[in-house]
Write a structure and sequence with these properties.
- By secondary structure, the protein is an alpha+beta fold.
- The chain has a domain at 69-219: Sandwich (Jelly Rolls).
- The chain has helices spanning 8-29, 75-81, 126-139, 198-214; strands at residues 90-92, 100-109, 112-122, 144-145, 152-162, 165-176, 179-189.
- It has a seven-stranded antiparallel beta sheet, with helices on both faces.
- The radius of gyration is 32 Å and the shape is globular.
Length: 224
């Protein structure tokens, strides 16, 4: 472990002690300071040792950066979920591309419209990611856990209607150590004005989430 220098305040406190110790040595070791006959000087007290420098106990982060999001979903998965979309996807600009990255795919084939978003968010610690995951799950009540995906995973599907046009949207949240993966998948049929079934949207979102979690290796911290 790397040792840290003493804090400035502590160094300032110890400096006068060192000066006094040097002055005391000069007074007791010079010719004028010889002890009188029959008398002995008291043994010198041992010097107090400086406190040990504090050591860091923070656990190392598993992920230090977000992987390329448009590479997070294989072309075959994109084709099956968003027919007609360009498989390369389009990355959405981010204020901090090291920690937050999102890719989007969308297409209208015939009258069927599909939209898929995949986002990676890297937190400073597992605890921070766990807290953020819990808050988002609470905001999207009505869903359920997705077993066997990441450290924690949650899926929810909702139906909205605007001007008699239905849209069904599925959201999957996954936490893996200090990383969050967020998948949004929705669809509409502009001919029937109906939305795809709940099962179709939910399974599609989970399928994309599994692929995105597998791609997290690109953001894994390098072993030291």
């Amino acid at each position: 472990m790397r040792s840290f220098p003493l804090p400035l305040a502590l160094t300032a406190r110890l400096s006068p002690v060192a000066v006094l110790a040097c002055a005391g040595w000069a007074l007791t070791s010079g010719p004028a300071a010889q002890p009188a006959a029959g008398h002995r000087t008291a043994p010198e007290a041992p010097a107090a040792s400086a406190p040990a420098a504090p050591s860091s106990t923070a656990a190392p982060k598993r992920y230090t950066s977000a992987p390329a999001p448009c590479a997070g979903v294989p072309a075959a998965v994109v084709k099956s979920l968003v027919p007609g979309a360009k498989t390369a996807g389009k990355e959405i600009p981010s204020t901090d591309s090291e920690l937050r990255r999102t890719c989007s795919w969308n297409a209208l084939k015939g009258f069927d419209y599909r939209w898929l978003d995949v986002s990676y968010e890297i937190s400073g610690s597992d605890e921070q990611a766990r807290k953020e995951y819990g808050q988002r799950v609470a905001e999207k009540s009505g869903g359920g856990a997705v077993p066997g995906l990441g450290d924690s995973a949650y899926s929810v599907v909702n139906l909205t209607t605007e001007d008699k046009q239905e849209t069904r949207e599925g959201v999957v949240l996954v936490r893996v150590a200090n990383a969050l993966v967020v998948v949004t998948y929705n669809g509409s049929d502009f001919e029937t004005r109906k939305a795809p079934g709940t099962d179709e949207i939910n399974k599609g979102a989970i399928k994309a989430a599994k692929a995105a979690v597998a791609a997290l290796g690109g953001g894994r911290a390098q072993a030291g």
